[in-house]
Design goal:
With about 150 residues, the chain is mostly beta strands. It has one domain (about 30-145): Photosynthetic Reaction Center, Chain H, domain 2, CATH 3.90.50.10. The chain has helices spanning about 115-120, 135-145, and strands at about 1-5, 5-15, 20-25, 30-35, 50-55, 60-70, 75-85, 95-100, 100-105, 110-115. The two termini are about 20 Å apart.
Length: about 150
Amino acid sequence: MDAFYGVETQKVLLGKGGYMWDRHTERPSNLVKVSDSPIGVEEPWQNICNLDVYDVHGEQIGTVEDLYADRMQAHLPRFLGVAAGGFLGIGKKHFLIPVEDVSHDVGEERVMVKQSRDKVMNSPEFDPEVVPRRDFQRAVYTYYGHFLMRTV
């Protein structure tokens, strides 16, 4: 593997030692799913999993299923994994919301998003079984209007 503009690229051999750049594979995710991490959050009040998520107008969007934290700073969440819709798990959509767009008052049983329900519901869906790759994180940040990203 070689680095090419920050993306690892596999070389495919072409007889007699030649090669071409064939397949781009992004570096491993810089995130860790907090529920899979032995570290967890720094303080118990920071764990907002299972809280309902409401938009800027007070409309319910869904529920926080997990937090995704920076792998190098495991106590520092970057995204909320939110599930919305569906019935008994069928038809449920999963979204990432940057923590910059979220507020939570200690003692409140809800999380507020600084966006409309429609904005969140139309955001890129993701598979909660897979930790989001950097390219997907960039797409989510861009979708929510964050152009200066941290370590993504």
